[in-house]
Design a protein that fits this description.
By secondary structure, the chain is mainly α. The protein contains three helices and no strands. It has one domain: Helix Hairpins, CATH 1.10.287.70. This is Potassium channel domain-containing protein.
Length: 116
């Protein structure tokens, strides 16, 4: 994904183009969330022996920071669950950073324009 944000000396992006930028960043985050849910669902299904629905439920709960639902009984399932939880903690924050990056950039750009 190529990022070309306007420099502080450039005029602020028109609102329509800003909305397209926000939607593009949101779509990128959405794709990463779906990918992460897929990895979690497959992992819980394979390592934990859970049904697809229960695996998706566990992956969703871990990915959002709510915590596990089902107990993992095997060492492999516990290891997968641990590594997925570590990944999820970082990924969840990253998803929201990507979503809010253009909004924060625009706000800082507006504040800088008002400063000059």
């Amino acid at each position: 994904m190529s990022v070309h944000l306007e420099h502080k000396s450039n005029p602020i992006l028109p609102f329509g183009k800003f909305i397209i930028r926000v939607l593009t960043y949101f779509l990128f985050s959405f794709i990463l969330i779906v990918f992460s849910l897929g990895i979690g669902t497959i992992g819980y299904n394979y390592f934990g022996g859970l049904s697809i629905i229960d695996s998706f439920y566990n992956a969703s709960m871990i990915l959002t920071g709510m915590g596990p639902v089902n107990e993992m009984k095997t060492d492999g399932a516990k290891l997968f669950s641990s590594f997925f939880a570590l990944y999820s903690g970082i990924a969840f924050l990253g998803f929201f950073a990507v979503i809010f990056a253009p909004i924060a950039h625009r706000l800082l750009h507006i504040l800088h324009l008002q400063d000059t």
